[in-house]
Amino acid sequence: MNKSKILGLISIIIVVTIYGVSYISRDVIDNYMHATVIVGFQLTIMAVLFTIYNIVKKNNFKIEKSDIFIICLSGLFGTTFFHVLTVLSITAIGPTVSSLLFGFAAVFSLIIDIIFFKRPKTKLSIFSVIVSLIGVYILMGIDFKDLASTNFKGYSLTILSIISWVVYCFLSDKVSDKYDKTVMLNYQAIVGAVTTLPFIFVYPVSMHNLMMGKVIINLIILGVFNSTIAYFLNIYAIKNIGVTLSNLFMNFLPVVTIILSLLLYGTIPSMNQVVGGIIIIGSVLLLNKDQNNIEIIEELNN
To answer: How far apart are alpha carbons 107 and 165 in whole angstroms?
Structure first.
């Protein structure tokens, strides 16, 4: 194994670890400020850092007028809606279950791809969707005899955050080839900061809470590590080990969150949640295999 591939593997392991820690960080800060304010601070830090980076690198900030709406809309879904809904879902069902359920994002993306973008329907892809839905059903622990016992609010918030992320991915894909990725992310972060930071006037934060060590540390984790450093490391990993292997490692995000929750809070997920999460991760692995098969066939046809 060459040096670049080893560094790529190390990078993606760091990325998954940072993302796992971020679920815990959101859960910690939620005790001291509203979800919208947390996201406002996080995205403001992200916007400032990317602005500095793009200025130093002398990247071109100019975008076509026809793309302004798409970039702003993608920023709204990918930063404002996604992050706020994620924090709210963590508050409702906890970081462990929220991260486990997020594995459904890849399968939901596949469903959208098949319906709206004519992705080839294969037996394996259909099977992976069915398996994933079974995993979601088991994880949520739906009892049809006692629906009130199911935390629909928490799970609905998580599913809405997943939908927001998938919509963001498809919107970004429409214009991502035209501009430097850091410039696009810069504008999306600005949209997120502008739409969430004003909530500090609706949900004011006391200076005492804001200056607490645990709050400052976790805001740095979210704004600097999760939203900025992890992005660069992820891009580096993709270049050196490929998209498929990078995405494969991302499926182990819930494992990191579970371990951290166990070590820090002694939180142990239920058997339903563990089994459902494993099934969802398994469905994503099947989906990755299916995507590889499609890419091989397309290469042979070309």
So the answer is: 12
Query: pLDDT per residue over 250-271, tens digit each?
Result: 667 777 777 777 777 677 777 8
Give per-residue pLDDT as tens, 267-285: 777 787 778 778 877 877 7
- Cβ neighbours, 10 Å, residue 1: 7
Global pTM exceeds 0.85: no
**Three-class DSSP category at 1:** coil
104-117 helix and 271-301 helix, angle to the nearest 10 degrees = 40
Phi, psi for 61 (deg, rounded to 5): -85, -5
Structure tokens at 269: 């997920």
Q: Which residues, 6 or more positions from 136, have their beta carbon under 8 angstroms from its beta carbon?
A: 101, 104, 276, 280
* Non-local CB neighbours of 106 within 8 Å, separated by 6+ positions: 247, 251, 284, 287
Give me the helices (H) in 57-103, please.
65-75, 82-93, 95-101
- Residue 102 token pair: 């997020």
The one-letter code for the residue type at 255 is V
